[in-house]
Fold each of these.
Amino acid sequence: MATSESRRRTYRLVMLALVIALLATIITATVIGAAGMSVGEAFRALAGLLRDGIDAVGDFPDWAPRLLLDLRLPRIALALIVGAALSTAGASFQGIFRNPLAEPYLLGVSAGAALGATVAIVWKPLSALGIYALPLLAFAGAVGAAFVVYRVATIGGRTTTASLLLAGVAVGSTLTAITSFLMVATERDLHTVVVWLMGGLSTASRTKVLVTLPVVVAGFVYMMLMARRMNLLLMGEERARELGIDSRRTRRNLMIVASLTTAAAVSFSGLIGFIGLMVPHIMRLVVGPDHRRLLPAAALFGALLLLVADTVARTVMAPAEIPVGIITAVAGGPFFLYLLRARKGI
């Protein structure tokens, strides 16, 4: 009883700390940047925007409220959404596969999104769709890849973890090869493709936030509703069936929802690695394996981590910008090696 109460107290403290840190980071990311205004002017512009709206005037540049509303705030919101999406999807994949090395791109989502985005960039007739050609094709490619992987891995009406992993590797490798061929064949668009593959939030807008948010929220709500079942899956499929859980159906539905959530996120952000791998594992060490606590903690920490990474990416070399995927890879690479050594005991 004391242990249970201690865990609840720890969870509340962790969530409070994450909320405070997230709010502080949001304010920091709002007021710093490469624009020609001081931090004080940015604070006053933000206060004016909250008080008077876009027509706010005061001791700050007259363009400052528009900069905050159209550029910085949408970018911050998209970072929060994408970070939370990748983290919760990663937590779900790690739970249903019972493997801390699982991540959101496991079913070929990243390779499919990369191929879709590359096709949108190099095939000029698609420019008729406007600025949403790329995210639409990236989303379609991500969902299509996950569907193909699942169908290929389903043999005789059964889908095993091993077959999913093998199918994911095979389909992902094939799609990556096609993407590489398109990059070589259309050299003039090579830079654009590479920048997208590195991941970034520089094209964030209010419309993109409004499109992505409902998908990610719906996915998170479903995962929370299935949290107890994911906890039972951690005990093994046989035990889960004994307790009345259809493990195959539960796993399939969670994979679909997690893949859709990931696809919605990467379609607007590009391929941002390691967030979905690092965050769930770290939060599992802090709050425990119970998905009823793990998922909310992972969502907050993932949002915080990606926002910090994006703020660094757009300010450390201002006015130039580093793709945020590079920042997450620099942090995630060493962590992955640590996790691999801990997992293998080498």
Note: The mean pLDDT is 86.
Amino acid sequence: MRGPGRAIRDRGMLSGRESRFHKKLEGGKLRCTLCPHNCVLPEGGRGRCKVRGNEGGSLSLPFYGYISALAMDPVEKKPLYHFRPGSLVLSAGFSGCNLRCPFCQNWHISQRTPAAESPGEGRGRVIEAKELIALALESGSAQIAYTYSEPLVHAEYLLEAMTLAREAGLANILVSNGTVSDGAAKAILSLTDAVNVDLKSFSPETYAKILGGDLDTVLAFITEAHALGVHTELTTLIVTDLNDHLDELERAASFIAGISPSIPWHLSAYHPDYRWNAPPTDKGLLAEAARLGKQLLDFVYTGNVPGGDFSDTVCPYCGKTLIRRGARRVDPSGLLLPGKAGDRAAGYCASCGKKADFIRL
């Protein structure tokens, strides 16, 4: 996951709620049904995510509403390049994750939950869902992003906050690894306006043995998001000695194209972090992977590298630049606003006049 920008932090205590995704077993045990791990929890036990546990025979959520970081970010940082380009989004971060990626760039919040043991020492605070909506409205943001660590392990909070956000006219943005059961996926995606899913590898073995996840579950989540009309973009961090093989990346591109060649695919450069010490992603390989992806997909972007040839959005009809992106500036001057008042669905290419319905304004 991408890390927080300029953060607003405060300390606070935790509050517990009960999960809606679990089954009771014999002997006081519980089975969490939120994700494919289906963790069986004895009394006092926690799931792999570290934020869902068995307390007195109830599946408790001690981190309900615990926000590890709160920041105003450019929407491009999520990254979302085709959803309200140039806008800002109030981004709420969480703690815990149901994967164990050894190269995690945000491991300090995804793999640790220090505030559960010492709440007063945490860098975040509890923000009730209605307060989060109020903060977004006060900030002038028209959208909220649930991001940084893995939001889906806090599904109950997402459902509450997303429902209130919709009622307040705010858009919901989800940045996720997509590792969640089908029922929870449908419920959350039905309230989601835009999603960026981390497609970390296209190898079932890598997901199972190294990441602690399931590729088919992630692919199903991506497919479901697009089928439900959620604006969908994907990110693959190209990790040296893990998924930096062109044949694997080509299989990933082929899968994406099978859903829609208009889905933006972000290829990001890795740097050594957490428990993975291989050299940073080779820039030449990153560019070659982007060119390979462009053979099957309309929009492929590269990230975590300065400059490069794959940061601008180009009109697929005439080849002119619709949106130009620099280090600190987004210039959408190649994209004309819709002619009809109230039509926020799409703009038009300033050069050829074709409708750019692959960009949501």
Note: The domain at 66-311 is CATH 3.20.20.70 (TIM Barrel).
Amino acid sequence: MGADGACPATTLNIPARFELRPHARGDFPYGWGVSLRGVEGAVGSPWARPLGGVLDQLVVESEVLAENPLGDPARRPLYVYRPPGIEFDHPKGLPSVYVIQGFTGQVDMWLGRQAFEPTMIERIDAMFTTRSCPDAIIVFVDAWTSRGGSQFINSAATGRYLDYLCDEVVPFIDDRYPTLVGRDHRGLAGKSSGGYGAMVVPMLRPDVFGALASHAGDALFECCYQPEFPLTARILRDHFDGSWDVFHERLASAATFDFQRHGAPLNAYGMACCYSPDLSRPGAALLPFEISTGRLIDDVWALWLEHDPVRMAPHHAAALRSMHRIYLDAGKSDEWYLDLGAQAFAQELAKIGAAHTLELFDGKHGGLTCRYPGAIRELVSALVP
């Protein structure tokens, strides 16, 4: 760009058979070549919509993820949203909400757009720009693994993602952003596997998080996971020689991710890495069913059930009762019956006297991005001193 804002002249090498000459309007059909010009500034809706706040796209290096069993990167992206007018030296401490992604998710997916919809970041920005939510710092955490996800817990097969979130990311944010330090001003939100993490992490680490919002979080494992075990057995038999090794080799070399063929086995093995890691083989898992028949292996399945939020709740009653806000929702047609999981978790919360709300709405498992801002507002409102 020239000093006066004009584009500098460019020399073009035009073949001799072409002649460049000025044209009057109308020389080309439909006025071609006479009206288009470059302009400054953001393109605006429905493309990149200018943000009122700021999204800081950071890169961090984790010590606890270094040398994880899968060899996954210890260097991670970390996104932090600041509302309009909030700088690093803001004089007033603000609540913070950490947003975690679903299985197979990674943090840059929050920038993706669905047809005729704002992105996740644009939705959050609109909420804060219109002042319909008190100011807060919103942190988007990446816990991707090459097995599809981490469930945000520590595992001998995937790595220490609970410690990464609670003991590395949270202190990093509190040290650099104007946050109110302490669990009473910190919330956790997510959907699907992120919703699972939002339920489980505050149970395991109530010293870190004091509020949670779960959108269709994994719960009631016999409903959300077990029905796919026979499907996975069939897929392995028919397409992958009945072998997990063959499945992983072919998935790694596949040109595209075919959800119909890869989805169920990837989910089953990824969850097994989190809930029933094979302690004798780093990075590997024990499966809770026989590949040849789909029949349950009871002792391994029991390890999974120990991680079910519905079954965990009674053992973490004090932590759940201490939450300033528990927000649950799910679509009534969720393909993995996570509406039933949300109801079962809510029933356990009621039994132990933990205040909560549950909203079931007309919808399936996908297309729930529109529900995040309202849940985040619920958490922020509960976390403001």
Note: The chain has two domains: 54-220+308-383, 223-304.
Amino acid sequence: MWKSEPYFRQKAVHSMVSAISESLADNQPSIYLYGSSVLDDFRLGWSDIDILVLTQKRVSQAQAQELVILRQKLLESAPENPYYRLFEGGMLTLSAFCSQTSDCVVYWGTSGQRITDSYLFDSFCMVELLQNGQLLYGQDIRGQLKMPEYQELCADVRKHYEGIRKYAQTTGRSFYSFGWLLDIARGIYTLRNGTVVSKTEAAQWVLDNNLCPDFNALDTALKVRRNPMAFLNDMQIFDYAETLGGEIQRFADMLEKELEAVSVSIKN
């Protein structure tokens, strides 16, 4: 399985793009891959496969009904390929995406899939799409999209910070408990450097610059992030993950100070 992973992932991406483009053939879709998959940061056992589909014509209800179950359909046809369940993203018209107006939207997420009328695409995702996104099908329409300004990135860092304060006071026995530390590291990196890089690169930068109050916690998070499959049966790692609440909040204190400094700088 280890040697076959690149093949299975490429096969899943190819099959997914083929199926989506066939379903939306009359809608002139542009299909993009972005996120960890194009930042050389994808790791099976942790990462998702992020895609965005922007169309010229509105997705019909019949098309949406077909697309919303596409992940499961492809997985059922190739149960030996674990990558189909990892796709996340949205499908909607380019005009609605740009104007943030109501539309027929197919949404795939960690919690499931649904047909809805809006799609949230934050400034971090937009930077990743514009800087590193890979066009998989159709016309490249990124010239019609706007690169987020620094203030927009700061606002989304603050939203992440508020989520960390609200939801990461305590942690569970999960790899994703380490993810809070990586989120904070990327927030600090973005505030300091004004751009977006992979969470792994940001966390390494934070360690190199001695910006984390608990080196061991972030260093361990990086080790798990770089090779999650090696820790699947490591009970000590999961025991440790369950105790990270305090370390996360102390690291969030540093992010709070960074946000305060940026706020003062912007006002001046």
Note: Residues 5-144 form one domain.
